[in-house]
Amino acid sequence: MAAKNSRVIVKIREMILQGWLPPGERVREVELAGKLGVSRTPVRESLPTLAQEGLLTQLDTGGFVVRAFTPQEIMDAIDVRGVLEGLAARMLAEQGPPRRLLHSLQECLREGDEIFTKGHLVQSDEARYGEMNKQFHSLIVQGAGSKVVAEAIERNGRIPFAAAHAIAFDRVDLPRMYESLKYYHRQHHAIVQALENGEGARVAALMFEHASGAKESINMTRTSSRPGAANAEGPPFGQSNGNFPES
C-alpha cells in the first residue's frame, strides 16, 4: 500500500503543477481516484501528505482544496533549501561523517544506479527515485546534527515543491527527464565523495547546485501541459502520449 500511495502522491503533484487541479479547487476523492485509476483509499491516505508539502489546504469542515502558489515562490524556496542543505553538508564534512552514515549514502547511490542502468524510465521509477532522493537528503541533514538547520529545512519544505522528495515527472518528454535525473544522480555521487574527503566548501557548493537542478525539473513538468489546462477536464493518467513503459 505504501508504494501505491507514493505513486498516487507523485501523480497528484503533477496534476497540480500542470494545472489539471487549479488553485482553490476542492479535491474530490472519488473523481480523483477515477482519473488516476486507483481506489479511493490511496487517494484519501495521500492527501494529508500533500497538505504537509503545502500543495493542499485542509478545510475546517473537512476535505482539502488546492493551495494557490506562484512559480517564483517555488524557485525561491528551492534556493533556500540549497543554502540550508549546503550548510548541513558542510557541517557534516567538517565533523567527519560516521562510517554507518556513509554506508547508508552508498546504499542510496546503488539504488539510484539501478534506476538508470536500464536506460529509460518506467512507471515505478517515479516513487522509487523520490524515496531514494528523500532518504539521501535526510541522511545528510540529520547527520549534520543541527536541530536549527533541520527545523529550518522542514519549515521551508512546506512551500510547494520545495522539499527534496517533491518529485514531479515530465511525461511528455521522458527521455529528457531521464537524462536530467541521471545528471542529478551523478551529483549525488560527487556529494558523497566530497563528504568522504572532508571537503566542506566543495560539498556546500555541490548541494546548492544540486538543489538548483530541481528548478529545471519543475519547469519541464509545469510547461509540458498545454496553455489553459487548468480550465480543461484533463486526461486520465496513463493515457497521454507520455506514458511510462510498465517495465
Outline the structure in words:
With 247 residues, this protein is mostly helical. The chain contains 9 helices and 2 strands; from the N terminus they run αααββαααααα. A two-stranded antiparallel ribbon has the order 1-2. Strand 1 and strand 2 form a beta hairpin. It starts with a helix and ends in a 25-residue tail after the last helix.
Descriptive tags:
247 residues; mainly alpha; Arc Repressor Mutant, subunit A; Four Helix Bundle (Hemerythrin (Met), subunit A); two-stranded antiparallel sheet; 9 helices; 64% helix
Spans of at least 5 consecutive residues whose pLDDT stays below 50 are 226-242
Radius of gyration: 18 Å
Please provide the count of β strands: 2
Task: Assign the CATH class of the largest domain.
Answer: Mainly Alpha
Rough outline: globular
Task: Compose a concise summary of this entry.
This protein is mainly α and 247 residues long. It is 64% helix and 2% strand. It has two domains: 2-68, Arc Repressor Mutant, subunit A (Orthogonal Bundle); 71-222, Up-down Bundle (Four Helix Bundle (Hemerythrin (Met), subunit A)).
What secondary-structure arrangement, pairings included, does this model have?
Elements: H1 2-17, H2 29-36, H3 40-52, E1 56-58, E2 64-66, H4 71-95, H5 99-117, H6 125-144, H7 147-156, H8 174-196, H9 200-222
Antiparallel strand pairs: 1-2
Helix pairs in contact: 1-3, 1-6, 2-3, 4-6, 4-7, 4-9, 5-6, 5-8, 8-9
